[in-house]
Amino acid sequence: NAGVTQTPKFQVLKTGQSMTLQCAQDMNHEYMSWYRQDPGMGLRLIHYSVGAGITDQGEVPNGYNVSRSTTEDFPLRLLSAAPSQTSVYFCASRVENTDTQYFGPGTRLTVL
Amino acid sequence: RKEVEQDPGPFNVPEGATVAFNCTYSNSASQSFFWYRQDCRKEPKLLMSVYSSGNEDGRFTAQLNRASQYISLLIRDSKLSDSATYLCVVIPGNQFYFGTGTSLTVIP
User: What is d(CA A104, CA B31) in angstroms, rounded to the nearest whole number?
Assistant: First the structure.
């Protein structure tokens, strides 16, 4: 198993550009989440999904969209990048109703 | 009020020392608690769960105090390889809430 994979590892965007961060898992986990990690803020939940076709907002959803068309994939879209979205983004997955969460290696995004 | 509060440190301790981290949480209905470890520029990984009765895994001991709403992590006989950031996690419902992390450096 590859576990949770994320692409790209690094990305630099200009303000106003859009892009999609990719996340995939091969463990057949129903539950997937996107977090951002900023210095002094810890990990904050952006969006999550409890299964294909079902998504919901987390703590900091503004400026981001998600979709879950398959169990494996959970892409995160930045609609119009802003410098405040400079962060490290982690995707995670777990089996629903269990508490062990598996994280991808992260995407380091800089918005200029 | 934040769901989870954690002392960011940093903690710099010599090899062999014992070090303890605390984390407080605000939602008394929280049911699940964890400690994750995060190495520099890497993803967080589960270190251990925290149970009301306390639990131990080798040199690591985690405890939960529901009355005072805090969890703790004790590391005995610190090793250089323990240097990392330790994140506490509280789950009051269906969402994970992470602390900001406590940085530990074990010095030779």
Answer: 25
